[in-house]
# Entry
Amino acid sequence: MSNNCLDPISEIINSRQKAFALNDVCANVCSFATVAIDGTPRVRIMNLNGISGRFFELHCSEQSGKWQELKHSPAYELLLWWPCVARQYRIRGELEIMPQSLVEQSWLRAPYCFKLLDRFYEEYQPLGSKLQNQKLLLSSLNNLKIKYPSEQQVPPPQHLRGFYCKADWIESLYIDDLRVHERHCYAYIDDQWHHELLVP
Ligand SMILES: Cc1cc2nc3c(=O)[nH]c(=O)nc-3n(C[C@H](O)[C@H](O)[C@H](O)COP(=O)(O)O)c2cc1C
# Structure
């Protein structure tokens, strides 16, 4: 593997900024794959809350399937696909749990309707549990609106969790209809990124 000190994270941040500028609907999200307790794969869309250094920040509920899976096996793959800039990034590495105070600070900036739904998980039924009908959910959310009439009054629930995907392996694929694709592989070894070009 060559050691030409390219930094794939800056490249990802630049691509994401371009994707945002082009109103790419995927710029704010990622696909996050985990391994279920029975060894089968699971994948879902999540908001990508931020990128800083090698850390990709994601949030979920302690009640969610993914949190239970990560507790059992920290293995994951994060996939970023931004059609407007024609870039795919696959990211692997270690998992780091976010300090609870930061999770709560970030939750305070969430939209009112999401905050109420998070309260529903805490005060009515847990995330993913069987719901009798949609009307029940809507009327419970209305009750929560009466209980917490403004955004500032909604208290953070106990089940909030956050974690960082700390990248140590990244594969970038540049797609362009007019020319041959480019595939780059980066591994973080001895405090620096090492780069290899692969057959796309
Ligand atoms: C655009 C979009 C953004 C989402 N963001 C999140 C998120 O940040 N965190 C999360 O736990 N689920 C998020 N979800 C819901 C997940 O895709 C998934 O349905 C849910 O978390 C349950 O997954 P699990 O049972 O595998 O944990 C999002 C879904 C969509 C469509």
